[in-house]
Each structure stands twice: as C-alpha cells, then as structure tokens.
Amino acid sequence: MTSKPLFKRVLLKASGEALMGSQGFGIDVAVVDRIAADIAAVRAMDVEVGVVVGGGNIFRGVAVASKGGDRVTGDHMGMLATVINALALATSLRKLGVDTEVLSAVSMPDICQSFSQRAALNHLKRGRVVIFAGGTGNPFFTTDSAAALRAAEMGAEAILKGTQVDGIYSADPKKVPDATRYDTLTHDEVLNKGLAVMDVAAVALARENSIPIIVFSIHEEGEFAKIMVGEGRATIVRDH
Ligand SMILES: Nc1ncnc2c1ncn2[C@@H]1O[C@H](COP(=O)(O)OP(=O)(O)OP(=O)(O)O)[C@@H](O)[C@H]1O
Ligand SMILES: O=c1ccn([C@@H]2O[C@H](COP(=O)(O)O)[C@@H](O)[C@H]2O)c(=O)[nH]1
C-alpha cells in the first residue's frame, strides 16, 4: 500500500467481544495476534496509534446488575477485564517487535503503568503503541466512552471503532437482517436516530471535540490499514 495515511494520530477502539473468536468466552490468542498484526501494519505507515480495548469477551457490569448484583462491583470487574485484554494485546504486539506500553486508568503499578496524559503523549511521540486499559476508571461508563475520552486527551484525529459489524445500520443488523447501512452520518444523526452502535456519552464527547468516528469490522484482516488510506468498508461519522 503506497497511499499516504489520512491521519497522523488515531485511537482504535478494539472490540473486546471479538477477542474470544469462536469461543463463547475469553481470549483466542490467534485472533489477538491477527488484530495485533493489523495494528502493526498501521504503525508501519508511521501513524501514531492509541488503542482502547473493550472487555465484553470476559465481563460486563450490566450482567451482574441484571442478576440483582451490585452494578459498581460489576463495573470494577469489567474494567479489570479490559486490563487482561490489554495485556494480551500488548504481548501480541511485542511478539511482532512493536514497541508497546499499557497505561491503566486503574492503578496497578506491579502490572503496568498508570495512565496520565503526559505519559501517554510521551509514549506516542516516541512511536510506541499505547494501550489504554481500565476504561475511564469509573463505573457506569463503557470503553466506547473511554475511547472518546482518550482520543480527545491525545488530540487524536479520528476514533476507529473496530467492532463486530461493518458499519452503522438503521437498526442493529444482528437483530434486524434487512437494516440498511449508512456510508456517512453526522454525530447528531447518530444521537437523534438512536443508533446504538456506540453509547451516547461517547458520541457526544466525540461531537464536542469534532472527532470523526469510523466504524468498521475488526474481523476483516487488513481493514484498519485500508481505512487509514481512505479505502475499506466503514461508516464515517463527522460534523459535515
Ligand atoms: N444501529 C446499529 N448499527 C450497527 N450496529 C449496531 C446498531 N445498533 C446496535 N448495534 C450493535 O452494536 C454492537 C457493537 O456494540 P459494542 O460496542 O457493545 O460491542 P463491541 O464493539 O464488540 O465492544 P466490546 O465487546 O468491547 O464492548 C454491534 O456488534 C451491533 O450488533
Ligand atoms: O470506563 C469504563 C469502562 C468499562 N467499564 C466496565 O467494563 C465493562 C467492559 O467494557 P465494555 O465497553 O462493555 O467492553 C463494561 O461493561 C463496564 O462494566 C466501566 O465500568 N467503566
């Protein structure tokens, strides 16, 4: 691929659920290795890459709350799940020779560095992939919100949401098979139409900071790099 990348610094939100592959739970190392290779390809284009990884393959706080458990404890467990995924992804990236640092919103200094904006920017400028673990560090949020927050803090030019589907549809395509797919939308349209591919707080934060959101399938090998040069299949959410 010879085209010049569209962005100098991006934030990838990598689906946690994707990491379990065809298993019902946990981490399929082959899948993590493949996603790491896709990130390495974008890094090789000299793009600075931050990554927020979800935790849906291991734990979501709402699952506890729906069974009568304590939501905050459930969310703490979900945040820990994102740290597990971040460590797995960092391991796969390092195997490929990609300099990578994990920064967690929840302090656990024996395992990884704690997040600070200053440290993160420093790592990015030195060419390291930075994986933001622990979400926002607060319950009642999701890693989509963490992605929008870290993108704003890092001055990222775009959020790339690598998820289970290849874009934003008129309804959840997993539930409504004849839902239609959008090529482009504005942040307001995503919010006003109630398109639930990303949570409201995340879309609102991206809108306030004029950060485009590009939704694509993380299951398509090489798609991340294609999108960086304006190719590939995705829905683009932007102000105009
Ligand atoms: N209008 C819509 N267009 C596209 N997908 C939608 C829409 N509404 C709901 N969805 C669903 O949203 C899902 C993405 O949500 P979510 O962020 O929870 O999953 P994820 O990317 O796997 O993240 P994680 O596992 O890290 O939480 C898609 O897989 C899709 O089924
Ligand atoms: O800022 C955050 C981010 C995440 N959580 C909890 O973690 C899980 C997993 O994240 P997903 O975005 O769903 O993949 C989430 O369901 C929350 O329980 C959080 O509390 N705060």
TrEMBL record:
Q: How is its activity regulated?
A: Allosterically activated by GTP. Inhibited by UTP.
The GO terms describing molecular function are:
UMP kinase activity
Q: Which residues bind ATP?
A: K13, A14, S15, G16, G56, R60, T163, Q164, Y169, D172
Please give the Gene3D superfamilies that the UniProt record associates with this protein: Acetylglutamate kinase-like
List, for all copies, the residue spans of the domain called Aspartate/glutamate/uridylate kinase: 8-217
Catalyses: UMP + ATP = UDP + ADP
Q: In which pathway does it act?
A: Pyrimidine metabolism; CTP biosynthesis via de novo pathway; UDP from UMP (UMPK route): step 1/1
Subcellular location(s): the record lists: Cytoplasm
Q: Where does UMP bind?
A: G55, D75, T136, G137, N138, P139, F140, F141, T142, T143
Which Enzyme Commission number(s) are listed? 2.7.4.22
Q: Which family does it belong to?
A: Belongs to the UMP kinase family.
Subunit details for this protein? Homohexamer.
Name recorded for this polypeptide: Uridylate kinase
Q: What's the source species for this entry?
A: Hoeflea ulvae
